[in-house]
Amino acid sequence: MLSAKSDKYGRDFRVISRWEPTSQRCSCCGEIGGKKELKIREWKCLFCGAIHDRDVNAAVNIKVAGGQSETLNGRGEKVRLSAKKARQG
Ligand SMILES: [Zn+2]
Hints:
Bound molecules: zinc ion
Number of strands: 2
Order of helices and strands: HEEHH
Oligomer: single chain
Strand order of the largest sheet: 1-2
C-alpha cells in the first residue's frame, strides 16, 4: 500500500529492518548505547559524548539504515559502502 502510493506520487520508499535499534544507536558514532525508556527524550552517548534528541537521533538512523544518508562525521566502513552502492544503483 505505502509502496504503491510512493510510486504514484514519485516519492522514494524504503523498508528497513524492524530490529534495527534506531533509538538505541548513536547517530554520530554508531555505537549502541542500550535500551532507553520511552519517557527519556534526550540522552548523551556514552561513547562519543554527543547529546541527542530521541526522535531526531532515531530519524537520522532510519535515513542511514535506508541508505539515503550518511552521518556528518562518518560511521563504520560498512555503512559508507552501502550508501555508495545506493547512489550508484
Ligand atoms: Zn556516540
